[in-house]
Structure formats: structure tokens, C-alpha cells
Amino acid sequence: MMTVIVLSGPIGAGKSSLTGILSKYLGTNPFYESVDDNPVLPLFYENPKKYAFLLQVYFLNTRFQSIKSALTDDNNVLDRSIYEDALFFQMNADIGRATKEEVDTYYELLHNMMSELDRMPKKNPDLLVHIDVSYDTMLKRIQKRGRNYEQLSYDPTLEDYYKRLLRYYKPWYEKYDYSPKMTIDGDKFDFMASEEDRQEVLNQIVAKLKEMGKLDEDWKPNLVK
Ligand SMILES: Nc1ncnc2c1ncn2[C@@H]1O[C@H](COP(=O)(O)OP(=O)(O)O)[C@@H](O)[C@H]1O
Ligand SMILES: Nc1nc2c(ncn2[C@H]2C[C@H](O)[C@@H](COP(=O)(O)O)O2)c(=O)[nH]1
């Protein structure tokens, strides 16, 4: 059965990490957001006002590309949903990093591209797995990952940016209704370092997929690597 799972959550929540763990466990394909090979991301952090619009278009384009493959392919896990794109741009626009013309153009482009998804065999994911984290956890993980331009030492105003991002995520998740959804407590479960925590998180997701009828009741992982 074709099942598409999408991860969501703020920067550093653990989406990419869980995408890898989950796709391996389910025997499906991981799809990653373009980050380390994204030439616009460092420019954005250096000069957000100048590059917010370009970065947004860059992400929209790469995400659309991976969604097209993921929704036509078999079983997949994506490390961020396209539904979060507007959240990021709205927030950047609200803090004055985009002109009205850029905002209008972006929304038109987004709607236009989203309507293309109507033609796909599947328009929406089967399940959204949201990783919920506090500011402290988010910051710790951003530090652990160590991308220079995401550190508060690089730009102290990132503290406000990150706190604001967390505030935007709450209503976004509550409103999200394109598919069934579930939350993983990213503060509680250290699914990178603790084998026990990792298993607990996987069990929660598998239980949800079984409840939805996407996995058979007697499904067991094929752990042969
Ligand atoms: N649940 C977790 N417990 C401990 N460390 C984590 C957890 N999730 C992610 N990390 C670590 O935090 C950093 C950011 O994780 P990543 O998966 O890149 O986040 P995202 O894709 O959401 O930005 C990485 O260094 C990763 O090893
Ligand atoms: N301004 C925007 N920035 C975005 C968007 N999507 C991702 N990002 C940034 C945030 C991180 O610095 C980096 C990678 O995100 P992770 O959550 O995977 O760490 O890219 C966006 O739509 N707009």
C-alpha cells in the first residue's frame, strides 16, 4: 500500500533525523529538504531582507520537485511539508522582510503550484508527524548541528526569530487538516541518543498507521539492513 508520511516542525526539531530513522524502519524512501546544497540559505541569513523572497521561491521549487516524486512513488517519508512554506514566508513578511508585491506574487505562485498537485495520484500525505519542541531544545539542537549562520553568535536577533517561529507553529498545527496528524514530544524523546526513546517514538507512529489501516495489525519491521 502506498503511504506518504510528512514530518513537520521548527528548525532543528529533528525532522531530518526522524525521516532517516522512520524510513529505514518502515522500509520506505527518505526525501530530504535541500539545505547544505542550498546556495541561497547563507545569503538569506546574511541579509534576510534582501533574500527572503528568493529563498522562499528556491524552497518552494525544490519542495515541489520532491513532492512530485514522493507522491507518485511508492512509500515515502518527507522531511518537511509544503504546508509550512507559507508559515515561514508569512512570518518573514510580518517582520518586514518582503514587500507587498513579493507577498502577493508568492501566494499566487504557491496556489498555482498547489493546484498542480490535484493531478497527482495522491494530493496530500497520508499522515503528518509533527515534532513539538521548546525554545531551549530547538536552540540546543541548532547548536549541536552547528550550521554557522543559524547560531545566535552569528546574529543575536535570531533569538527573536526562533521564538517567533515557535509561536507561529502552534496555530498552524492546530489548523492543519490536509491529512491525519500526530505530535511527537521532541523535548521528551531523545531519539538520536537513546535506543529506548527511539523505539517509543517509532511505536507511536506505527500505532497511528495501524489505527488508520495503513499497516496491518500484525506488521513487524524488517530489520535486515
Ligand atoms: N530527538 C532528538 N534528540 C536528540 N537530538 C536530536 C533529536 N532530534 C534531532 N537531534 C539532533 O539535533 C540536530 C538537528 O536535527 P535535524 O534532524 O537536522 O533537525 P531538522 O531537520 O528538524 O532541522 C541534529 O544534530 C540531530 O542529531
Ligand atoms: N525563510 C525560510 N527559511 C526556511 C524555509 N524552510 C526552511 N528554512 C530554513 C530554516 C533552516 O535554517 C534551514 C533548514 O530548515 P530545517 O528545519 O530543516 O533545519 O532552512 C522557508 O520556507 N523559509
TrEMBL record:
It holds the Pfam family dNK. GO terms for cellular component: cytoplasm. It comes from the Bacteria. Gene3D superfamilies: P-loop containing nucleotide triphosphate hydrolases (3.40.50.300). Keywords: ATP-binding, Kinase, Nucleotide-binding, Transferase. Residues 5-205 form the Deoxynucleoside kinase domain. This is Deoxynucleoside kinase. It comes from Lactobacillus gasseri (strain ATCC 33323 / DSM 20243 / BCRC 14619 / CIP 102991 / JCM 1131 / KCTC 3163 / NCIMB 11718 / NCTC 13722 / AM63). The lineage of its organism: Bacteria, Bacillati, Bacillota, Bacilli, Lactobacillales.
